[in-house]
Amino acid sequence: MAANQPVISVVGARPQFVKLAPICQAFDSAASLPHRIVHTGQHYDPGMSTVFFEELSIPSPDVNLNVGSGGHGEQTGKMLGALEACFIDENPAAVVIYGDTNSTLAACLAAVKLHIPVVHVEAGLRSFNRAMPEEINRIASDHCSDRLYAPTPVSLANLQNENLLERSVLCGDVMRDTVIRNLAIAEQKGAGLNDIPADYGVLTLHRPVNTDGEFLPELLSRIDRVAGQTVPLIFPVHPRIQSIVKELCAGFTAIEVVDPLAYLDMLVTVRNARLVITDSGGLQKEAAFVATPCVTIREETEWTETVEIGVNRLTGTSEGEISDAVFAALDTRFSSETTAALNQSFGDGNAAQNIVQDLIDFL
Questions:
Q1: Considering 35, 39, 206, 238, which one is annotated as catalytic?
Q2: Is 115 a catalytic site residue?
Q3: What's the CA dihedral at 278, 274, 16, 264 to 10 degrees?
Q4: What ranges make up the beta strands (E) of 133-280?
Q5: CATH number for the domain including 97?
């Protein structure tokens, strides 16, 4: 490895920016490897991209590919070609990929075909549902990467089961790093939403299985009726479905639709909520990290630890199942034992330092 060869982090979507923030800080502290950021442009709305770089003190991307949206094949293909050209030009010592998006897979494939070492932050996650595009991205990226940073013992066990243990390291969860470092900052800045009920919950939905097709109106109606019997819900809506959701929720009494929230606003809003209802992977953890119970409207989760600890409940989509899970979540109490269990599973906020130090040794 030449002294001037950079390590390149490739990101493109909101959850990846949250993971990138502590990694950037760890690289700054290490000061022995140049670090550059390539943004694919998978999420390009300012509320889903620019604001995260500003709030989390992430340096502006050195390269922005501006790929934009599109079908999975089209989007991944555009990224693959653009990243290949970028890597040839930059000649990186390694490429760091994050999570499970199309940006993750495209960066992995582009680097591997150029014989550039690939390291995967948040490796080993498995929902065991191959109908999810994210599951395919995870599996392919893990099996092509040279270094696998597992956030939890469960993810490490998944990698062991796939004969990948020799290239795997248990490091902790970088999203926990980000929450720990930013919650106090967010509260000091008065982040959050104004003019909302004293008791409320937070709702997010974005997965195609819940939001595409004809099922979304019925699902929202069921959630609205449950919320009417429990706590009203604040719904920050993903730009992809914003217009249709605002129309569908116009006549509801217990769901208030708002624009996407910046990271600090979302963190405090979740922290002060009675519960979270979501189909997001990352929000399941973030809710647990700020001691807010979660109901996940999915048949499975990558983060089984949150279910086992008792702070997250999986539910189907029937109104009865949602209602039972919401009432149970509202009765959930976090204790010192809960915090200890979360620390044991997700680490104590030093995952990024662990990753960067191991990467320096590895290279």
A1: 206
A2: no
A3: 140
A4: 147-150, 168-170, 201-204, 233-236, 255-258, 275-278
A5: 3.40.50.2000
Regarding whether 209 and 353 lie in a shared domain, the answer is no
Q: Number of structural domains, the chain?
A: 2
- Under a CB-based contact definition with an 8 Å cutoff, are residues 217 and 248 in contact? yes
Q: Give the residue among 179, 312, 261 at the shortest CA–CA distance from 14.
A: 261
Region of poorest pLDDT, from 37-41, 48-52, 140-144, 292-296: 48-52
pLDDT in tens, 199-251: 999 999 988 888 877 889 999 999 999 999 999 999 999 777 888 899 999 98
Give the whole-angstrom CA distance, residue 158 versus residue 79. Answer: 28
Give me the sign of the Cα torsion angle 11, 14, 15, 20: positive
> Which contiguous run of DSSP H or E holds residue 362?
helix 351-362
| Total residues belonging to the chain | 363
Q: Could you tell me if 356 and 325 lie in one domain?
A: no
**Range of the structural domain that residue 130 is part of:** 7-173+347-362
